[in-house]
Input
Amino acid sequence: MSIININQTQRVKVLLRLLDNHENIETACSKAGLNVEVTKKFLSLN
Output
């Protein structure tokens, strides 16, 4: 399945799984198809 065809909830699940596997936030966001700056604000990491 393409990253384009998944919903926001699935993207967040991918992000969390990548972070759990010690991926850095920028790379994890990119792989999950999420905006880095928005995600950092959401997680209060900025």
